[in-house]
Amino acid sequence: MAKTSRYRCSLLSLLFVEMASAAEMPLNMTQGVTDISHQVYDLHMTIFYICCAIGLVVFGAMFWAIFHHRKAKGVQPAQFHESTRVEILWTAIPVFILIIMAIPATKTLIAMEDTTDAEVTVLVTGSQWKWHYKYLDYPVEYYSLLATPQKQINNKIAKGENYLLEVDRPLVIPTGKKVRFLTTSDDVIHSWWVPAFAVKKDANPGFINESWAKVNEPGIYRGQCAELCGKDHGFMPVVVVAKEPAEFDAWIKEQADIQAKAKAAEQELLAMNMSMAEAMALGEKTYLGYCAACHQAGGGGLPGAFPALKGSKMATTAEGKAAHIDIVLNGKAGTAMQAFGKQLTMQEIAAVITYERNAWDNNTGDLIQAADIHAAKTGKKE
Amino acid sequence: MSTVTHDHDTAHHGEHHHHAPSGLKRWLYTTNHKDIGTLYLLFALTMFFIGGAMAMVIRAELFQPGLQLVQADFFNQMTTVHGLIMVFGAVMPAFTGLANWLIPMMIGAPDMALPRMNNWSFWILPFAFAILLASLFMEGGGPGFGWTFYAPLSTKYSGDSTALFVFSVHIMGISSIMGAINVIVTIFNLRAPGMTWMKMPLFVWTWLITAYLLIAVMPVLAGTVTMVLTDKYFGTSFFDAAGGGDPVLFQHIFWFFGHPEVYIMILPAFGIVSSIVPTFARKPLFGYASMVYATSSIALLSFLVWAHHMFTTGMPVFAELFFMYCTMLIAVPTGVKVFNWVATMWKGAMTFETPMMFALAFIVLFTIGGFSGLMLAITPADFQYHDTYFVVAHFHYVLVTGAIFSILAAAYYWLPKWTGHMYDETLGQWHFWCSLISVNMLFFPMHFVGLAGMPRRIPDYALQFADFNAFISIGGFAFGLSQLLFVWVLVKCIKGGEKATNQVWEGAEGLEWTLSSPPPYHSFTTPPEVK
Q: Touching check for A301 and chain B: CB below 8 Å?
């Protein structure tokens, strides 16, 4: 994601510049870039106009009465108080309007739920607080994380154009093809939403939901998690890049190659040793990207919610080392601590554990290598 | 209440047993429907300000993009506890308070039928909310999973404050059920001779139906929170797929409670508006019978629409269609109500005192909330609206400018009856106009923010939403401050003011207006004659 930090300014004027830099907000629902999203927009506008028309009649009558039938004008109140005919009339007319409205809504809904004949299928997995995309037809899968730096969120530096709507690795799909999204979750319920596709589907742990989109125009489409999923619910955007089919094919082939090579390289790396400085540098980067949201940048955690690593028994004692590697690899059931074994490379895991055992005065002097992680991983499997 | 009239002369059964203790004990031991009504109303007002203060924290954080005042998890606690307090602490107790004050006076009874249970149902409430509020000060903070507490966020992934949350919801539920039993028993047994079902004031009718809804769904809520508790602490897997459960099951059970709950918070409002509009239009309510039938239909339909809160959970398409049609159908009886109110005003001779102003604002703004509700019923469009600020706008229109405005209208309407003094009309009008303008600044732009794509329950947002959010926050602060005017009106009215007549309002009809202002301690010691 290209991040443009066009606004350089002193901290004092930061707040005002933020306001000025705000992109123009559309006042209506997006029409989107799929046939379905256009239909949804049309339904939205139809029901909106129906409401406006009813509102005009009802409020019109009401305000007419307010202006003309007021005591200050010296009118005498009438005493009529029922009319079965009128009651039937204003029961029947709304029923008729609703039936008219229900017909196109039913058609669109049935079309939206028809996920058959998809050409590309992506498994979308939500977890606190990121998305994982896995192409079922290609050997490609990866995590997609918020790319906005913490410093922008904490108002230390100016906010970029796509603040909170940018990720490190967007989902890429082809245009003109029916792409099916299978949504599920590793932990709590999330909801995968791309407004431009009119797709919003809950990601339920243990179950798989289906939805689909056939995107007409290439472009970058941004959305967010729509279901409250804990602390960083507001910080797990969805970015989808739609490419022409030829471009998509080239991209997916490239990705498959890169991922295959990375797997091979990982094996080679097992034999190599990082220096302490290298491990600490990589570890800090990984820690800030994956761990600091809960355990905090200073390692202090949040009392009662997320345990501190700074000075913790696990991160400072020799006996805690194996448990430390285990918890990072496999997570801790029943807590927000996830298994990072499949999200991070062994080298990254080794580095981040090294970092956690030496940063913030933990000073154990322990240097963990990828081979140690590999040993722990394979030891587990046996 | 500043004045308590002991109506010894009308005590027929020889000795009069009432010896009012003074001070704190009077309120602690009271079994009197007016005292308990007052307690409920003051409690609701207190909770309204506490929940409101949390809304101010939310709006202050959302004033600008970025995290300035609070951290994300505390923000979630604020939205959660704000919702719980406003629903269970402000709106519901306020309606129960009104029921306590008004139902005996409206049906010609001396008191509620079960006065000791009445005392208990109120006095457990402060403990429930003390527990809930105390949980905010626990290590790890209070509940942060939204007032809807979806599993597994509220089970596996929540803090230990969940146990306190569950306990406090249980107490709230017990209180509501006892209040509902009392209302039903009172209405069935204590109506004055001649007051047939179809002569009951609509406020009594709507509360009767509400009470049945409460008894039907509060146990469901109790079951839900209990399952959350056992999933979290006792190894059950109701909502955990790994153990054979289903997280979506939680939502089905919760909303089977939750949707009728929405009508629990609006049906009494319909009763209030149906009392106020005829008074100030000086014309009988149009279509009384159809109002009763419409209220009953809404209550019945409320059990058939719960899954419209869950269109994105991945239901089969036929379930989605069923819930879409049923939800759209609710617009019909609700429409009948609105049409009847307008027909009541038509060719009346209206005046516009504060209660009428709030009632009129209710009709317009509640209807706007109804319109957005109708839009939300359209399932394909709901996929776009769901969990955005459009929904936040929708339910605040029906709950703030709906339920809360009706409660304010009721307070102004019956205050002279309760206290024996007229409230300050100028201040009341100021309160109304400040509230009206600020509440629309607060909630109307949320429709646009939601359509533009801002999800709800987020502490920080993309830059395009900045201007609107700043504007919304200003509206929020203004609305919060405006409510201080109400406290001023209230204090002034309780302390003194122009003496109110028995009828108070020129066009007012109903048994409560035949009593003195303020009414005697035991409203009707001899049943009045209803023709």
A: no
Concerning whether B261 is annotated as a catalytic residue, the answer is: yes
CA A192 centroid distance within chain = 6
pLDDT digits (tens, 9 = 90+) for B425-443: 999 999 999 999 999 999 9
Q: Which domain holds residue B116?
A: 34-514
Token pair, residue A122, equals 């992506």
Report the alpha-carbon distance of residue A253 to residue A304 in Å, rounded.
Answer: 46
Place of tokens 């790994």: B242
* A91/B351 Cβ within 8 A: no
**Which pTM was predicted?**
0.89
Rounded to whole angstroms, the Cα distance separating A244 from A222 reads 18
CATH 2.60.40.420 intervals, chain A: 120-259
Span B218-244, average pLDDT = 95
Answer whether A164 sits within 8 Å of B459, measured CB to CB: no
B111 is catalytic: yes
Query: Can you tell me the distance from the alpha carbon of A211 to that of A183, in angstroms, rounded to the nearest whole number?
Result: 8
Residue B226, min C-alpha distance to chain A (Å): 19
Interface probe for A, chosen from B138, B311, B460 (most Cβ of A below 10 Å), is B460
Catalytic residue selected from B29, B120, B123, B147:
B147
B110 belongs to a structural domain: yes
Catalytic residue of the set B261, B320, B382, B512: B261
Q: Which residue of chain A comes nearest to B147, CA vs CA? A: A228
**Cα-based angle B29, B34, B35 (whole degrees, multiple of 5):** 30
Q: Which of B283, B337, B394, B417 is the catalytic position?
A: B337
pLDDT of residue A2: 39
Q: Average pLDDT of A184-206?
A: 96
pLDDT-derived band of residue A301, with 50, 70 and 90 as boundaries? confident
Model pLDDT for residues B126-153, shown as the tens digit of each residue: 999 999 999 999 888 899 999 999 999 9
* Interchain CB distance below 8 Å, B350 and A209: no
Topology of domain A120-259, per CATH? Immunoglobulin-like (2.60.40)
Neighboring chain B residues of A58 at a CB cutoff of 8 Å: 338-339, 342, 367
User: Which pLDDT score, from 0 to 100, does residue B393 have?
Assistant: 97
- Nearest chain A residue (CA) to B247: A204
Which of B150, B242, B284 is the closest to A79 by Cβ? B284
A113 contacts on B by Cβ (under 8 Å):
317, 320
Please report the residues numbered 305 through 364 in chain A whose beta carbons come closer than 8 angstroms to any beta carbon of chain B: 305, 334-336
B169-214: pLDDT as tens digits: 999 999 999 999 999 999 999 999 999 999 999 999 999 999 999 9
Please give the CATH number for the structural domain made up of A35-112.
1.10.287.90
Cβ separation of A210 and B314 shorter than 8 Å? yes
Q: Which of A279, A335, A108 is nearest to B379 (CA)?
A: A108
Is the CATH number 3.10.20.30 carried by domain A270-381? no
pLDDT confidence bin for B491, thresholds 50/70/90: very high
- Is the backbone of residue A125 left (phi > 0), alpha (psi -120 to 50) or beta? beta
Per-residue three-class SS string for B260-329: HHHHHCCHHHHHHHHHHHHHHHCCCCCCHHHHHHHHHHHHHHCCCCHHHHCHHHCCCHHHHHHHHHHHHH
* B288 annotated active-site: no
- Quick one: pLDDT at residue B19? 61
Phi, psi angle pair for B387, to nearest 5°:
60, 30
Average pLDDT on A246-260 reads: 94
**What are the chain B neighbours of A200 within 8 Å (beta carbons)?**
312, 383-384, 386-387
User: For residue A17, is pLDDT > 50?
Assistant: no
pLDDT in tens, A85-105: 999 999 999 999 999 999 999
Going by pLDDT thresholds of 50, 70 and 90, the confidence category of residue A269 is confident
**Using CB atoms, which residue from B351, B371, B460 is nearest to A51?**
B371
The answer to whether the CB of B278 falls within 8 A of the CB of B284 is yes
